[in-house]
Specification:
With about 200 residues, the protein is of the alpha+beta class. It has one domain: Electron Transport, Fmn-binding Protein, Chain A (Pnp Oxidase, Chain A). Helix content is about 25%, strand content about 35%. It is elongated, with a radius of gyration of 20 Å.
């Protein structure tokens, strides 16, 4: 991912993008070309591994040898920016549309996990993570044991040993302050995607 210095995120902030996104696209090379899968993820406390799972019926995992390279793409905010939001265009009309976004790219080595205990731990940890702020809070244990066991047989685990992370926040930092503030103000009253971007534009300059 191309990251000019003024758009770069430190590692801690880049990891927060992964957390905020909650799910992302994993891409790997196959004999037939690139293949992707969209999955929810959880991160180990030391940020050394990312864990997830896919349906056993999904062919994405088949043919994976241990520790193959995989690319994870996580997007936490994204919105189109119109030049009409730039006050500076009235004096300098040489402007073009662009896109504001906050994204992280994670590279690592993928291993398939097919042990039922690993899968059980992963789905419980994943569920607990995403249910943590919900009321009422649903838990895997709320389903019958036989049903959970059947569902575990229908999935395959994914464990990624992280080798690098790169984060980028392109939030109009390269525009004059008046343009930056005008974009943020417009987005604050826009679509859900635009409001999400606006919330991230306050401290980026």
């Amino acid at each position: 991912m191309y990251v000019p210095p003024h758009f770069a995120l430190d590692d801690a902030t880049a990891w927060q993008v992964v957390v905020d996104a909650g799910a992302g696209m994993l891409v790997r090379t196959t004999p037939d070309g690139l293949e992707s899968v969209f999955v929810p993820v959880i991160i180990s406390e030391d940020r050394g591994t990312i864990r997830s799972h896919v349906a056993r019926a999904n062919s994405w995992w088949r043919g994976v040898e241990d520790a193959i390279d995989v690319l994870g793409l996580f997007l936490a905010a994204s919105a189109y920016v119109s030049p009409s939001n730039y006050p500076s265009r009235l004096e300098s009309p040489g402007v073009v549309p662009t896109w504001n976004y906050v994204a992280t790219e994670v590279r690592g080595r993928l291993t398939i996990r097919d042990d039922v205990d690993w899968l059980d731990d992963q789905v419980r940890a994943l569920t607990d993570h995403f249910e943590a702020t919900r009321q009422p809070r649903w838990r895997v244990g709320d389903s019958p044991d036989a049903y959970v066991a059947k569902q575990l047989r229908a999935i395959v685990g994914l464990e990624i040993e992280v080798t690098s992370i790169v984060g980028k926040a392109k939030l109009s930092q390269n525009r004059p302050s008046a343009d930056h503030e005008a974009v943020r103000a417009a987005f604050e009253h826009g679509s859900l995607a635009e409001r999400n971007v606006a919330a991230r534009m306050g401290d980026d300059q």
